[in-house]
Amino acid sequence: MLSLPLFHRIAGQPVIVLGEGEAAAAKRRLVTRAGGEIVTDIQQGVDRGARLAFVAHDNPQAVEGDVIRLRCAGLLVNATDRPELCDFTVPSLVDRAPVLIAVGTGGASAGLAKAVRLRLERLLPQGLGALADALHAARAGLRARFPEASDRRRALDAALEDGGPLDVLRADAAGQVAGWLDGAHSQHVAPVEITLRSDDPDDLTLREARLLGQADALVHDAGIPPAILTRARADAVRIPAGGAVPGEGLVVILRHSGN
């Protein structure tokens, strides 16, 4: 990754926005939408403890001068259309609050990020945020029914996947949470073996990619490329081939085609 994606909470916090015109107005709208308080003077913003700044001047020299001043004051800076001066970039957003999907290109092409975002807008139902709220409200019930974290993960993975009772693309999924939880059950999942056809992660099938993303443990041959291994959950246990296979949770065995 060329950048570390983060969600920064700015509600009630001062954020410096410099410049006039549509670019600066767009940044002000974005800050306001996230609950931040706009400050248009550098010193005032520094005195109030601002941590982020947006610079959207038309004059390149003014941009460079203000970026230097802001960085010297310890702020992270975004300079419109100047990726080489940016400490952070602003992604294109799909807003299904509290679900927020950010599409970024590291400043390479705002148009590409927008095109991807529009595809996702058409794909994801408006009720996705309500599903997140319903699952949040059901946390106590989930813990009561599935005391073990691995059991909770497997139950949720099965419910949220394609065709499941809480399929994320179902418009009415939020209304199914209570009924699903009442009838939910945990079961042992047999290990699943995936034989790679190539070292390119794009050659994984949708099912294989989904299994990697759901696995509690990943048993893999030596030499499996990092690009494939990173498709698994970050907290999935990695076990070299020949090691002890866990008896619980979803175990995915990843092999080279020659093995």
Which key phrases capture this entry?
259 residues, Rossmann fold, Cobalt-precorrin-4 Transmethylase, domain 1, 3 domains, 4-stranded parallel sheet, 10 helices
Q: Oligomeric state of the chains?
A: single chain
- The assigned CATH architecture of the largest domain is 3-Layer(aba) Sandwich
Number of DSSP-assigned strands = 10
Q: How many distinct helices?
A: 10
What is the percentage of strand-forming residues?
15-25%
Number of domains: 3
The helix/strand series, from N terminus to C terminus, equals: EHEHEHEEEHHHHHEHEHEE
The third-level CATH topology of the largest domain is: Rossmann fold
Considering the protein shown, what is the CATH homologous superfamily of the largest domain? NAD(P)-binding Rossmann-like Domain
Largest sheet, strands/sense/barrel? 4 strands, parallel
In short:
With 259 residues, the protein is α/β, with parallel strands linked by helices. It has helices at residues 21-33, 42-47, 60-72, 110-123, 128-137, 139-145, 149-160, 177-183, 206-214, 226-229, and strands spanning 14-18, 37-39, 52-55, 76-79, 92-96, 99-103, 192-195, 217-220, 237-240, 251-255. The chain is globular, with a radius of gyration of 23 Å.
